[in-house]
C-alpha cells in the first residue's frame, strides 16, 4: 500500500484557499442543458460529474493524491482531511458540491496496480436545482478575491473529433470470453459461488487523440438518466449509483438483471415485462440488493429496501433497478457518521459488479477473467469538505491511455448465475459496450 501526493499535506507550503461564489451567467437555469457545464471544460484533463444538466465540471489540478492497495480509500480520505484541516474557505452558496471538492476514481481490485486517485481541481463550476456557482481552489496565505468566470475559463475550443475508430480484441477475445462465462457457470454449479460478475475489454484505436469532452457531450445527451463522468482518463455514463450521501441521508441505485432493447418501443415494453418476471434476473438482482443493504446497515439507523425492482429504460438496455435508502448514524464509538467515500469503500464491491459471496467471487474473477479491470467497475465520483458526495460505479466506461490518447480500453461485464447462457451473456456485454462505442462515434447512428 502506498500514498503519493503531488503536494503532500505536510509539505503543502500554504493552505488551500477555497472560494465559492454564485454565478448568474450560465445558461438558462430553468431548463438546464448538459452543454452549459460541459462547454466550459478545457481539453486537458477535464473533470466531470453531470446528470440532466446538473452536477460539477472542473479543471486544473491544485493537488493529486495517488493511492494503492486495500487501504486506498482510507488513505485518500486521510490526506483529504489533513488538507482540509488547514484550508481557508469562504463558501457563499452552501450547497452540496460547493466549497472544497475532490474528484476520485479507484480500482476495482485491491491488488490492481491502477490503485486510485483523488484530484483537487483548481476551478469547479456546479449547478443544482436552478442555482449555479463557481469555486476556485488555490493555495496561499490568505483568502483570494472573489473569482469571476471570465478570468478562469479559457476560450472555448470545441471537442476534437477522434476520427475513425478501429476496434480489436482486448485481453480476451469475444469467443474465448464465452468460455470464461462457461467456467463461471461451472463454478456456480460446483457450489463455489452463487453469482459472479464477469467482464471483458475491447481495445479502440482512434485516428486522432481522444478528447474526453467529445465522449462526455455525446454521453450526456444520449444517456440523460446516467451520471456522465470523467476523472483522470476514466470516462463514461454510469446508470449505477454506488452511494450518494447528503445531510445524513444515503441513497444507492442498485442495478442487476438486464435485457437488450430491440429499438422497437412496443417490443421493448413486452421485454420489460419479461425482465420484471425473469427468475434468473430477479435472482441476480436480489444478490446485488442484499449486498448493498447489508453493507449499509451498520451505518444506518433505518434503511428502506424496495420489495420489488423497477425497470430502468436506457437507450441500449433495460435493467432491473432498486433505489435503496437509509438514514445515517454514527457507528458505536464514533463522533460522526462516515463520509461518502468511506461508505463507497464499505459497499465496494457490490454483488452487481463482483458476485456472491464477495470474497469467493473476487477470487474467481482473478482466476478466470484474464484481465486487470483497473478502474472499471470501481467507485468514481466526488466528495466535499463535510464528506458528503456522490460515487458511481464506473460502468459503461472506458480508460483513455495516458501515454497514447488514441488508445482507449472499453469495458463491459455481466452477472452470471446458474441459469446463465454464455452466448446470451456475450450479447449482453456487446449491448453494454454500445454507450462507449457511441461516445467515440461521429453521428447519431454511430455506435
Ligand atoms: C457489469 C456491468 O453492469 C452490471 C451488471 C448488470 C447485469 O449483469 O445485469 C447490470 C448492471 C450492472 O450492475 C457493466 O455494465 O459492465
UniProtKB/TrEMBL annotation:
Residues 174-432 form the Chorismate-utilising enzyme C-terminal domain. It catalyses: chorismate = isochorismate. InterPro entries: ADC_synthase (IPR005801), Chorismate_C (IPR015890), IsoChor_synthase (IPR004561). It comes from the Bacteria. The keyword Isomerase applies. GO terms for molecular function: isochorismate synthase activity. It holds the Pfam family Chorismate_bind. Its EC number is 5.4.4.2. Keywords: Isomerase. Belongs to the isochorismate synthase family. This is isochorismate synthase. It comes from Cellulomonas fengjieae.
